[in-house]
Specification:
The structure is a homotrimer. The first copy, chain A, is about 15% helix and about 30% strand. Chain A is flat, with a radius of gyration of 28 Å.
Chain lengths: ~350, ~350, ~350
């Protein structure tokens, strides 16, 4: 993680299109968190929860929002401070250049096409008829199956596996250990045993998708499992066969998508959410963590809980649930009071009604 | 994913033991999903939810159930259409032949026995005293530990790890990244630190088991962790030490089985279910997704929820839970009405009773 | 898993600091579970649930607690029987000696420092400027990124990945397939797409930590993700960027820790628990399985459920939840009785009150 020698705050103001409160000739040599930054470093205040930590910070400069409160050192103020932070981090930590070429220990099969500008690490395996595009980086011990294709500027971290025929777009980043294109989980019980339904489809990952460590995305039974452009997938996520995930969606760690479910564009599923098979989740749906989405969710809805309910409703249920033991006691007390009143008026208590109708 | 040149519908009717509505000389060259199939392809209608999609399909032929409605192209009708689909897919996508032999880059230790008909891929590692049976396929970068055994016709996809001593039966399929035989999670706190309990047992996987990508199955503390014949395990499943899973069970993605739990035969656990340690789950138990099974479940039961309840009961709880905020309001209203009635009759409201007895 | 030729019970009594009920010259040649142990083997009774199995066991000797009931064979009695079991298992299954040296197929980059007493397996990759300490064992196909450091006596099982710059302390054990230091899940939406926030921090794993198979621990955005000394982490656990886990904590399988959450010392999270981002979990907190910890938890608390509640309260909620359908029926009956009483007294039923106040 190399660092440049440093930048003046004036240079940074220009690069980040920020206004500067303070001395433009001051030099900072790195970016650091509020609690560990020293006088030579710039830190940042983006999440207001950290305002007190910022005021107590020893940082030599800050990046903050245009309307952030005053801070104890020169401050770069940006209209979109999170975007400015990305630029700031990139200035200090430019991506390492890709050394092109195939490591002598890599195994590239005859018929595989590896662009001359691509980089292939030690013990990587590129099988027959696979295509590795320009400036792609295939790290050590990664596996690109027969006929698989990796679009330009993509990165496969160590030990990624692409099964045969899997297609990755451009600028796709796959973290270590992810497995793309394993056989989907499809069986039919024949009376004696579960017979495998051949999984002969494939997986298509569109441009600018990122996939987390040890995540698994299964190939389709027929056709394709698809992850749309710009979608970001965290670690240990499971995506079943024939799933479609729309563009620019976010799947947080340990989410599980069952076979044939369809997610729209801009969907956000928090950690450990599960989606049942064949369910459709509309554009822009947001789900809270650990939700269980067992039925279709209309575009734009926010949901929570198992089974998932509209989020505001689910939050009221969460609050009410904690009061359940109390509620049962109150019910019992009310029944006693009813009995006393009925006795007073000489009315017989009604027979309990049978049936399950939960009115 | 090679395809044969094509089959006539007459040939397919014979092969699938299906009856044919339509022209037996018509040729189809592939199988495709309803929405993408063209006039040269055969599609299928097995799940009735797709009947409308089938009627709108451009497929040149269909495979369907004996009693399926009329479809817009020649139709093969089978009594067991899902089994027929397996045969159909296998006809068009026959498994690739295994090229026998050890890749020159593989590392096979002295004392390992690799059958001459087995195939070992690039950078695969077979340690001392391991045994790889007839027609086994060990893909690239897989690891077979010392003394491990892989039964005939099994497949280890890239990067599978078998720890030392693990034993796999025949026709076992392990998808990429699965880890079988890692040390179980056993510690004893000695007052200052968690001391590791040596995990010196092993894992036995019986015939015809399939194991998903990045799934983990731990070795026993002593004795064996066992997965019974014909059981199918999806991706990212965790199986703790000393677990026994019976024959022909189904564990869907992200299921977690705690140490020493015992599952019977024909158990089905849907996605993200957790089972507590030392719990016994009887034969044929079915659990809905995300359930938390904290106690024993009798054979044949269907359960759902955390903690798991009988499924019909759990579904009523799910429905009722959504009405909890309403119920609290109704309780408050009832209490006001009681107070008014008691006032009317000159009865003092009772003191609230203490205690926790939730009658 | 080699075994010594055997020990007399007298030798074992000395080694385990146990008292012996029975013949000290009797020899046992192995340790086995109660149900499979034979007359030449010693078994153990630590969990009282297995007392009946112990009485029925054919074991030639037992290890048990000082106050355990009488058993059908000579018995070693220890004040801390679980610690004694660790010693017993270690006597019969001493750790295999580490054969020092770098396997000829391993790829050690120039500038990497590998201690002469370390062992590096086939196809392992040690990148530039990495440091591998004394007696470390890097198993086959593992990857140690540029500048990463592995402290003495640590073990990386096959296929572990350490991203560049990751630092492991001494005696750290990482099971197969774990990925340490992948890029954290940080994006900022710029109105058109999710832009990656560069993840330029690192991961620090302190001494005596153990990490399970296929677990993922992400690098910090800036600064460090930290796992404290002596903490044990099971399989398939996700630890997000900038998380801090205190010393001597226990994270059971499939736990997920969101970004920037902080766990104290001695925390125990059971399987499939999720912790939300930026949450603080105090020292000694214990959480039941599948809990969803969405807010801070004070030191020493025991919690359960989603959202997590104090454990005793949560258990009452669990019991009460099962009675919800019944409760709704009782409410309806109470309302009917109220209506009848009001009719009797000529009182109009009150208008339902609006609003959401769930009193």
């Amino acid at each position: 993680m190399g660092k440049a020698a440093g930048f003046t705050l004036g240079e940074l103001a220009v690069a980040l299109r920020a206004t500067l409160d303070g001395d433009p000739s001051r030099v900072v040599t790195g970016v650091a968190p509020l609690d560990s930054a020293g006088p030579d470093q710039i830190s940042f205040l983006i999440d207001r929860r950290y305002a007190a930590a910022a005021r107590a910070s020893r940082a030599g400069a800050f990046l903050a929002a245009s309307d952030a409160p005053g801070l104890p050192a020169p401050t770069l103020r940006a209209a979109a401070p999170q975007q400015a932070l990305i630029d700031l981090l990139t200035l200090f930590h430019p991506p390492a250049p890709v050394p092109p070429g195939v490591h002598p220990t890599a195994a590239v099969a005859g018929g595989a096409r590896v662009d001359a500008s691509a980089s292939v690490g030690p013990f990587a395996v590129i099988e027959a008829d696979a295509a590795v595009g320009a400036r792609v980086r295939v790290h050590a011990l990664a596996y690109v199956g027969a006929g698989a294709a990796v679009g330009e500027d993509s990165v496969l971290y160590p030990r990624v596996v692409l099964y045969p025929g899997v297609r990755l777009g451009r600028r796709v980043v796959v973290q270590a250990g992810a497995v793309i294109g394993a056989e989907g989980f499809g069986y039919a019980f024949d009376g004696a045993a579960h017979r495998k339904i051949p999984q002969v489809g494939s997986v298509r990952i569109e441009d600018d998708v990122e996939i987390g460590a040890n995540t698994t995305i299964d190939r389709a039974t027929l056709g394709e499992t698809v992850v749309g452009r710009g979608t970001k997938i965290d670690n240990l996520v499971q995506i079943g066969h024939n799933v479609t995930v729309g563009e620019h969606s976010i799947l947080v760690a340990q989410v599980g998508l069952s076979g044939s479910c369809r997610l729209g564009r801009g969907v956000v599923l928090a950690g450990q959410v599960g989606v049942a098979d064949h369910v459709t989740v509309g554009d822009g749906v947001v789900s809270g963590a650990q939700a269980g989405i067992a039925g279709d969710v209309a575009a734009g809805e926010k949901v929570l809980g198992t089974p998932a309910l509209p989020m505001a409703h689910a939050r009221r249920v969460w609050v009410a649930k904690a009061r359940l033991p109390e509620l049962i006691r109150r019910m019992r007390a009310a029944e006693r009071r009813l009995q006393r009143l009925e006795g007073q008026l000489g009315i017989a208590a009604p027979e309990p009604r049978g049936g399950d109708e939960d009115e």
